Amino acid sequence: MDRMEFRRGNPQEEPPKRIAKKDYRRRWKTLAIGAAVVLLVVACAALWDSTAFDGLRRSVIYAQAKKDENGCALLYNYAAQKDQRCTYLNGSLILTSQHHVTILSESGQEIYHTDVKFHKAAVTDNGTLAAVYDIGGREVYLLNTKGLVRKLETDGEILDCSLNGRGDLVVTAGKKGYKAAVSVYDSKGALRFEFKSSDRFLMTAAVQEDGNQIAVVTMGEAEGSFASTVVLYRMDSTEPQANCQLPGGAVYDIRVVGSNYCAVAEDGLFFVGKDGEQKAFFDFEDTYLRRCSLRGDGYAAVVLGRYKSGGETQLVTVSDHGELIGRVDMGGEVLAVDAAGKYVAVLRSDALTIYDKKLNICAQLDDVSFAKEVLMREDGSALLVGAESASLYLP
Fold first, then answer.
1. Is the Cβ–Cβ distance between 97 and 81 less than 8 Å?
2. Distance between CA 362 and CA 44 in Å, rounded?
3. Average pLDDT over residues 90-119
4. Which residue blocks in 274-357 are alpha helix, DSSP H?
5. C-alpha distances in angstroms, 184 versus 87, 194, 205, 328?
6. What is the DSSP string of 361-394?
């Protein structure tokens, strides 16, 4: 019978290592946390792009605001002025007329006031800075929420002004010895670019958001008739970089919309790229241009009518590639339209309606008989401006 031998272990030797068991519970916990983070990010992105998020934000920001039964907070009171124009900057209302330029704070206090002698007051803004000027005059007032930033004196009669997001001011003006001139000033008031035209009229201009390129609308004779052309310049040269001739009638305005320039003409919207190529054209077909706002986030909002005045109207939104986003019949005269962010406000004599850019109704206010103008805001609220007061509608 074989004998089995056993050996005693050596206490000096290292004991055998145990094989660690996999901690599945910890792994599942890590995966669950990762999935929750991903879902939270997706949910936040969806809310950020929805009107529900804006409504929640308004309820927090304006929790202390005293509102009437319609959801309007009366913020501003002022004396009625003839041909008054206004804009809204982060809670401050800027008013301009033939005789005054005034800034009112959200509490209704006067921040800035000066007397002017304007023939036809106009105002444009970029959200943080406003340019108040006299069409046919020579003065431009640059204002922010605290007051006057600077005053600019031009040596020609002003035709148009515009601002880009970084504060570059574009001034198109008549100039002695030339058909017109366009000048660009930086945020500190220094002249960045100037071009004088001897053979073609300069109508309006816009600078890209990065400040590296300017698009100028010119009008001159081509093949026996007047034609508009979009001419592009780099800011460091007065030699044309590219040009795009637009068929049809006069161009009223040009601004940067999304990735392209948008030129508003009598018969449609022309979309021109930074390379000077016409990317798209949105045809108004058998309708007439009534009103237009190019302040939307990558789209234009246009009011069209079957007749030049009166009659039925319709609202359309158009992408920066010339594609129709939404269309809705208005059924009557539109007093004002304004776009901001993803919202469009339409003011009629009997109601204010706020749409998203697809023209789904977000809010409506029926009692607006006092209002003459509406200023849409990116958070979904809208400022209703009357002859002697302005109210902030908070849906």
1. yes
2. 20
3. 93
4. none
5. 22, 6, 10, 38
6. EEEEE---TTEEEEEE-TTS-EEEEESSEEEEE-
Residue written as token pair 């005693």? 8
Side-by-side strand order, sheet with 336-340: 336-340, 343-347, 352-356, 361-365
Residue 187, helix vs strand vs coil: coil
Structure tokens at 161: 């002004």
- Residue 376 carries which side chain, given as an amino acid letter? M
Q: What single-letter DSSP state applies at residue 319?
A: E
- What are the pLDDT digits (tens) for 157-212? 999 999 999 999 999 999 888 999 999 999 999 999 999 999 889 999 999 999 99
Model pTM?
Answer: 0.83
Q: What is the pLDDT of residues 349-384, one digit of tens each?
A: 889 999 999 999 999 999 898 899 999 999 999 999
Residue with tokens 């053979």: 199
In the predicted structure, residue 247 carries a pLDDT above the cut 90 = no
Distance CA 376, CA 333 (A): 19
Quick one: tokens of 297?
């986030």
